[in-house]
Write a structure and sequence with these properties.
Number of domains: 3
Largest sheet: 8 strands, antiparallel
Number of strands: 25
Distance between the termini: 11 Å
CATH architecture of the largest domain: 4-Layer Sandwich
CATH superfamily of the largest domain: Aminohydrolase, N-terminal nucleophile (Ntn) domain
CATH class of the largest domain: Alpha Beta
Mean pLDDT: 93
Shape: globular
Strand order of the largest sheet: 3-2-4-1-10-9-11-15
Bound molecules: 5-amino-5-deoxy-1-O-phosphono-D-mannitol
């Protein structure tokens, strides 16, 4: 959600900023902007829409003497995506970029307006630059003014500020939104995610909440509530090549195809010949645990819901799943014998992070399933299990979901082993099924072209119902989410058995039902539910290993030895269906409207 890049040094700044913003663009693409100060020269450019508009606007600009520069790509929270609302926001002689939400901005804005300050934008961010300039003109000391400014801010922020009054300095602060500092000799970089500075900086420091400071040529001073703080950097490595499209039309498409490969990485060293193991965690960590609570949002929530069936069925441990934004305000009853699990692709989702902090305050042990090492949620958790999906760029999550689900399945079997709830033979069968997963995740040309052909029949209608039972119900939720977020068509996921309790009233030939009909789990039950819909003239696309006469369209899956293999195969089909429908509708699949990759505001 929004991306920030900053740079201090003598290299060409426009390219550094635009390059970094390109890497972050998938996080927010309502507008973008850059600002550069070189000595007495201030320059800024902003453009609405995708980054390419900003690139065009700034094409003749060059800034290659020593100076400071900040850039931003925006996902609008306050104010429409207009140029005036785009960051950086300008005061009289200072610029600011910000990620997060300043909750008390209205009160601060009122105060500043009463003192004669004029606001140009509708954003919460603009108060930062005006407060800073007010304090700086009183104190005549930019760092003290910056410090005083951030002391007045409530809410979440990662912010960078540059000013003509200190043209060799970048001021920074982090509280609740991610930010890191990169180093390359005397050059200093800032970014909201390390992908923006991979290949530029070789060392990095991930800021903690409440830290702030300034960077000046050759020195970075860091402070927190206790005063000045020393810090240690980590080497920054990363492979930018892995985030390129490799000939696919969209990152999402590439990421769907990658699933059969990355799932192998997820299993590596964890799924052994006759047992599963997790080297990141000690067996004693699970002592005293008699239930599990999982908190997550969106797709990550769906992987939690699907695997909650496995925790109860295999490990015989109670497992509740909650949407993080609901959990936060329900005054939940938390017990120290509950293991608190969070799931997050990005590791930065504000609601999930806050839920985790609440659980920690209540004394619960915490474990996260995450795709991004060093992310806020990873750092906050007692134990982190990384999904190893590689960078996921498509806003619609695919390979992250597959790897989260696999890792949770492994965890369920691991806990089952510890609790002795499965016999050797069953564990062996689970392992065999896990090892077979890469095969069912492979996208064949035949399957993809079939879905491409079918997709043209699903571009209209008054809605989609994805239905399934048991673990296929969360998969139905996920299939519907995938379709709605990139096609903008209305889609719902439903437990098949619930249709007759209301939603079946919508059934007619313009209601498209995507029926997940696995053979290994409750086949006859779901079949009856689909027959009920067919009797009301709903258009049925059945996905099953068993031919189904009443289906208008049919995608045949393989006969499988385990429900999870059917799950993964059907997952790929629903992802490809969403992709192909959305491409036919002419949508930008990787950057769907109104969304952002990482949701760092609540
Ligand atoms: O990074 P997270 O997994 O915590 O993100 C949670 C959701 O925002 C995310 O899964 C979202 O629903 C995706 N756009 C789904 O495709």
């Amino acid at each position: 959600m929004c991306g920030i890049v900053g740079y201090l040094g003598a290299k060409e700044k426009k390219e550094i900023l635009l390059d970094g913003l390109k890497e972050l663009e998938y996080r927010g693409y309502d507008s973008a902007g850059i600002a550069v100060i070189e000595g007495v020269n201030l320059n800024s450019f902003k453009a609405v829409g995708k980054l390419e508009n900003l690139v065009r606007k700034a094409k003749d600009f060059k800034a290659d003497s020593f100076g400071v520069a900040i850039g931003h790509t925006r996902w609008a929270t306050h104010g429409k995506p207009t140029e005036l609302n785009a960051h950086p926001h300008l005061g009289k002689k200072s610029y600011v970029v910000h990620n997060g939400i300043i909750e008390n901005y209205q009160e601060l804005k009122k105060e500043l307006i009463s003192e004669g300050v004029e606001f140009l934008s509708q954003t919460d961010t603009e108060v930062i630059v005006h407060l800073f300039e007010k304090y700086n003109s009183e104190l005549n000391e930019p760092f003290e003014a910056f410090k005083k400014t951030i002391e007045r801010l409530d809410g979440a922020y990662a912010t960078l500020l540059i000013t003509k009054d200190a043209p060799d300095t970048i001021f920074f602060a982090k509280h609740g939104s991610p930010m890191l500092i990169g180093f390359d000799g005397d050059d200093v970089y800032f970014a909201s995610s390390d992908t923006a500075i991979i290949g530029k900086a070789d060392k990095v420091y991930y800021l903690e909440d409440g830290e702030y400071g300034y960077a000046k040529s050759g020195e970075v001073k860091l402070f927190n509530s206790k005063g000045e703080k020393s810090f240690t950097t980590k080497p920054l490595d990363g492979d930018k090549l892995s985030a390129q499209k490799d000939g696919y039309r969209f990152f999402m498409e590439k990421e769907i195809y990658e699933q059969s490969r990355v799932i192998v990485d997820t299993m590596m060293g964890r799924v052994l010949d006759s047992e599963v193991t997790l080297e990141e965690v000690n067996e004693s960590f699970f002592e005293g645990i008699d239930s599990i609570k999982i908190c997550a949002c969106g797709t990550s929530y769906h992987s939690a819901l699907a695997t909650s069936y496995l925790f109860e069925r295999m490990a015989k441990i109670r497992c509740d799943v909650e949407i993080a934004s609901e959990f936060r305000y329900k005054e939940p009853l938390l017990d120290k014998s509950t293991l608190f699990i969070t799931i997050s692709q990005s590791g930065e989702t504000a609601d999930t992070l806050e839920a985790l902090k609440m659980a920690k305050r209540a004394g619960l042990k915490s474990l996260t399933i995450c795709n991004v090492d060093n992310s806020s949620i990873v750092r906050e958790s007692d134990v982190a299990l990384l999904t190893r999906a590689g960078i996921e760029k498509g806003v619609a999550s695919t390979k992250a979901f597959a790897t989260q689900t696999m890792l949770l399945w492994i965890l369920a079997i691991y806990i089952a082993q510890l609790r002795g709830t499965l016999d050797r033979e069953t564990i062996q069968k689970e392992i065999e099924a896990m090892r077979h997963s890469p095969t069912v995740l492979k996208v064949t040309d035949e399957l993809h072209s079939k879905i491409h052909r079918l997709s043209k029949r699903y571009l209209h209608g008054h809605g989609f119902f994805f239905i399934g039972r048991d673990i296929f119900y969360p998969l139905a939720l996920e299939g519907a989410l995938k379709l709605k977020e990139i096609s903008y068509l209305h889609a719902e996921g439903y437990p098949a058995g619930e249709m007759k309790h209301g939603p079946i009233a919508l059934a007619d030939s313009n209601l498209f039902t995507i029926a997940l009909m696995p053979k290994t789990l409750l086949y006859d039950k779901i079949k009856s539910n689909v027959e009920e819909l067919s009797a009301r003239d709903a258009t049925i696309l059945a996905i099953s290993p068993e031919p189904f006469d009443l289906a208008d369209d049919f995608i045949q899956t393989k006969q499988a030895i385990h429900p999870m293999l059917e799950f993964f195969e059907m997952m790929v089909i629903t992802q490809l269906l969403a992709l192909e429908i959305s491409i036919r509708l002419g949508n930008d699949v990787d950057m769907p409207r109104n969304l952002a990759k990482s949701v760092t505001v609540e």
